[in-house]
Each structure stands twice: as structure tokens, then as C-alpha cells.
Amino acid sequence: MEAEAQVHRRRGVIATIGTLAVLVVLGIFVVRVVYYTKLIRSGELDPSSLSFTSAYSVSAALAGQPIEDGTFDLATVYDPSLGSRTAAVTIVEFADFGCPYSRESSFVIRELALQYPEDVRFIYRDFPLSDIHPIAQKAAEAGECAQDQGKFWEYHDKLYQNQNDLTQDRLVEFAAELNMNAYQFETCLDSGRYADEVIEDYQAGVEAGVRGTPTFFINGNRIAGAIPKDILDAVIQSVLNREEE
Fold this sequence. Notes:
The chain is an alpha+beta fold.
């Protein structure tokens, strides 16, 4: 009986320690976000120096490759976008539908797109990490097929909301659930119509120093990793303020 009580006490201590550890990590993260946000808004920190690689899926094939510094013009007129084409801030995201950090960023992007419809243009480009997420290439092609039917962003949301259930059959089923022409969609996907375009996105990202997902280019400046909403909001405000000066 006493031995059983000791086991329960031990488990309780372990659970308490685990909870405290989670709270400490969460507290450090919150402090970091508040600190960076304050520095960005005061102009003391250059947003292009930021990195969030703790929330970043890295391709093993690319991890050791050198990265060139500089700004990169990666905006396109044909990739899916939100916001005005004349916006002062252009944010290009390289993402992977199978990446949990890209999923995290997807909600942030959707929220800020509503907040800044005229000031910010968001552009989505594909960077499938097929060595980590085998379905990534096909999911990216499926997104392009959805774009054909004017449903990219709805499909984008659907894939990220069902990230743990991505198979080729499910990619087609999701399209049907969004009232797309299922035959047209499946024909597009099976034919590999957009395979080369997805690969072109990937190669453009590699040349610009993308080594994992998500990676953002804010007016050409690269930031790796999932950017917390408050920090991304502060970065946008910082750029907009500079534009007004």
C-alpha cells in the first residue's frame, strides 16, 4: 500500500515538474516576443536580422549549404496572393503544406491579411520538403489546381486544417468538399500539370537562401521560421512607418 502511494507521489512530482518546465518555456517565449516587438517598434532592431529557426522545418539536403546575404525580388504576378498589388509591404512566404510551422504561420497570415488589406500584399510560394513530408510535392500541385478554379485560399486553409490527413485521395476529396469541379481537379492533379511550376518555386527559394519552411521575404529581406503574430505585426508597422517618412 505504501509502495503504491510512493509511486503516485512520484508521478505527481514528475507531472508538476513537467508542467513547470512548459510554463517556463512559454514564459521565455512570451518575454522574447514582447522584447523584440518593443525593439522593432522603437526602431532599435532591424527586422531583417530576425530569425525564428526554433519554429522551422529544415531540409536535410539543404541544411549545410551556404546562404547568400542581400535582398531578393521574389514577388510574382501568378502565385496566389492576398492584398493590393500596390501595397507598400510585400511579404512572400515559402511554405510546405506538410510543415507544422507553415501551418502555424498560415493562421497568422490570414489574420494579418484581413487587418492590412491595402497596405500589405501576401504571396504564397511552394517549398515542398519532400525528404520530410512525402506528400508535400503533390499537395503543392493540388494547391495550384485549386488556384485554377479560384479556390486556392479556401483549399490552403483546408489542407492546413487537415494536415495529418494528407493523402492523394484526400487531396481530391477536399476539393470536392469545397465545391470544386472534382473531375477537373483530379485530372489536373493526376496529370502533374503544375509539377514544374512547384519545382520552379522551390528552386527560386533555394537560390534566395531558403533552407526550410516557413521562410518569409519582407520587401525582399529574408526571415526564417514561423514569426509570432505580434512580431510580424510590428515588422509591418515598422516598414509602413519608414514608407511614410
